[in-house]
Amino acid sequence: MAGAGLGIAFGGSSFFVREQPVFRIMATSMKSAPLQIPSKKVVLGCGTVVIDYLASVSAFPQPDDKIRSIDFQFQGGGNVGNSLTGAARLGLKPVLISKVADDALGLRILEELKKDGVDTSHVVVAKGGVSPFTYIIIDKERLTRTCIHTPGHPPMLPTEIDTATLSSVLQGTDLVFFDCRLTDTAVKIAKMAAELKLPILVDAEKKREFLDELLVYCDYMVASSRFPEAWTNSKNLAEALLCVASKLPKLKFIIVTLGAEGCVMLERSTTTDHGETMDVNQTLDSLRQQVSAVKSPQPRVVSSKMGRLVPSTGSRIAIFGRLIVGTAQEVPAAQLADTTGAGDAFVGAVMYSLCAGFTAERMLPFAATVAAANCQAVGARAGLPRRDDARILHMLL
Question: What is the DSSP string of 322-345?
Fold first, then answer.
């Protein structure tokens, strides 16, 4: 989710535990152990990779303005490329399925990914055509970024991925990831991955063609702030989460990223129906009040108990699970360079967390910290931390 303005933070140390009748604030567990890469580490990702043209300006231009940039960067980008790069720097072994042209942009895209350890051997390279690119305007006054994307040509077709080759690649894969672009190709891959019972993570930004066909295979979802309500036609986020879970019975969790406000997660119970019935709106409101009552620059999580979550309305939807609110990590204004790719950094950290078997209490602060680190450099990848980065090293022990 390029530029989602996510986590802004440093560190993730433990904090106190406060028990309440229904809710509890949980510490981030840190255990001393050798720094080992997860045994499950191969991630196959499918989506669009691009070149980003990043122009920093003192203020966003008005119509017909002529202004000068105060800084310019030329970097690789694209949701799947950014997230896989982040995962590679954390120690995973990503494999990419995408398409570029054999132009200078395409060669640059592949060169950057290879340098970071992303396997690009299954990327389709078209003879002729144009590789995708994005203009990004970074407004230094309002700390925003605006993206203008130009798709590549010719577009990728599902038939360009050989079925036998894909089957072979999937046999050695531990996690499959889709950024909800190239969705017709993604559906083909998802069907085969599901047959092999491989876990599937989806980054859902907005409605797209073939998206509904893809989401039925989804085990884990990270969604933009607007997606759940738009996709379900729900009146608020809490009830939209229930609707998403009810529509996708395979879904184990959905995380909704909310920029500087952190994130909200609905985690489905893995056991039989149990626990008390909880109004999902009241539960979320209560968790948010607890978060706002404890000020800390460190990312943290607040969770409800497991129970039967129901909407405030007369709907019969009920999901057995819990709600979790995670905070973002604060970055001082002087250190905040650019929010481009913060959401992709978050997703890359979620990939690592799934491969490493992290709990939600460990995953969300870790992802917030990785996203925050990325916000301290211009572009979607320049700030992505490596696993020996002091800001995250203690969170991997």
Answer: EEEEE------GGG----TTHHHH
